[in-house]
Design goal:
Shape: globular
CATH architecture: Alpha-Beta Barrel
Order of helices and strands: EHEHEHEHHEEEHEHEHHHHEHEH
CATH class: Alpha Beta
Strand order of the largest sheet: 1-2-3-4-7-8-9-11
Radius of gyration: 19 Å
Number of domains: 1
Largest sheet: 8 strands, parallel, barrel
Strand content: 15-25%
Length: 334
């Protein structure tokens, strides 16, 4: 079954406005809402960064059925994994069966300014995430947890309020090692659209499957979720212009390396021409081209499509998409 999600852009909107958009998404038939967890946004001017866990609790109280998750939290630096486990257990107790914890190895933009730490390489970030996931699962299922690991310690720790069934952990990945770890440890997988098609076919999905095999499980039951970056409007010029706010996504890893200040990230992004700023996005003013742009991802097995729209009027996007695109996309792929 195809599932439609709404990506709540916490970098672009304040908490109240973003909450109203997410409530509207449920009213219009979306199945899930995933919110980013940033300490700082991609750009300083007009940027936002509400606290994801508080925001998710508010959304849960204003909605009835939509799945609510993070895409993604880093439970390894500015958050100790035991605190993430406590926060998510509370959310799971408040909204049983509706909470997902999406996690990743992190980025310096969020972790360095808030802590002053020296940003480590991937090997340490991977080790920290592995340990954090194992510790959080113990805290959700055991009592009096004493953990003495290479990165984290707890002493007789108990989380007293938690759901009957542990919250599923989805793991984000953009490279082979992270994809293997996601397959090995995750209940779901998260990636983003708009990159080289070979990355999905030849790197992410094969390594995800290798990780599943290493864990002794199959791909069945693993939720393959992808954030689809879609700028959809009846006016193509408007759809193209809407991508400007998110131009930082088009910066290469080399261009972004070591940039931990939203002011500098904004400067680099604003220097890009509009066509390059839009390069990560599916920009369209009709449904048929959108369906064809989605097809390669669906055919690879992604059945949980979380739509990230870049424009300032999210209500317009949600209504247009729900009315014109959603029924035809379902018909095309189900």
């Amino acid at each position: 079954m195809l599932r439609f999600g709404y990506k709540a852009s916490a970098e672009q909107f304040g908490p109240r406005q973003l909450l109203d958009y997410a409530v509207l998404a449920e009213e219009l038939g979306f199945d899930s809402c995933f919110v980013s967890d940033h300490f700082q946004p991609w750009r300083h001017t007009g940027g936002h960064a509400p606290f994801s866990f508080a925001w998710m609790a508010a959304l849960g109280e204003r909605t009835r059925r939509i799945t609510i998750g993070t895409s993604v939290v880093t439970p390894t630096f500015r958050y100790h994994p035991s605190i993430v486990a406590q926060a998510v257990a509370t959310l799971g107790a408040l909204h049983p069966g509706r909470i997902v914890l999406g996690v990743g190895t992190g980025e310096s933009l969020n972790e360095v300014p808030s802590t002053g730490l020296d940003w480590p390489g991937f090997r340490e970030r991977e080790g920290r995430l592995r340990e954090a996931v194992a510790l959080m699962r113990r805290l959700w299922t055991e009592e009096r947890v004493s953990h003495h690991g290479p990165y984290y310690r707890t002493e007789n720790a108990t989380i007293y309020d938690r759901p009957e069934k542990p919250v599923p952990i989805y793991m984000g990945a953009s490279g082979p090692k992270a994809a293997f770890m996601a397959g090995e440890l995750g209940d779901g997988f998260i990636c983003t659209s708009g990159k080289n098609p070979d990355l999905y076919r030849e790197t992410l999905l094969p390594n995800l499957e290798r990780g599943r095999k290493a864990a002794g499980v199959g791909m069945e039951g693993l939720d393959l979720m992808i954030e689809m970056k879609v700028s959809f409007d009846t006016d193509r010029d408007a759809a193209l212009a809407n991508t400007r706010f998110w131009a930082a996504l088009a910066l290469s890893a080399e261009e972004k390396m070591g940039v931990e200040d939203p002011v500098e990230m904004e400067r680099l992004a604003d220097a890009l021409p509009l066509e390059r700023a839009a390069s990560r996005w599916i920009v369209c003013d009709a449904v048929e081209p959108l369906i064809e742009a989605l097809r390669p991802y669906v055919e690879l097995g992604f059945r949980h499509l979380v739509f990230h729209a870049p424009g300032p009027d999210q209500g317009r996007f949600l209504r247009l998409f729900a009315e014109r695109a959603m029924p035809r996309i379902r018909a095309a792929f189900e």
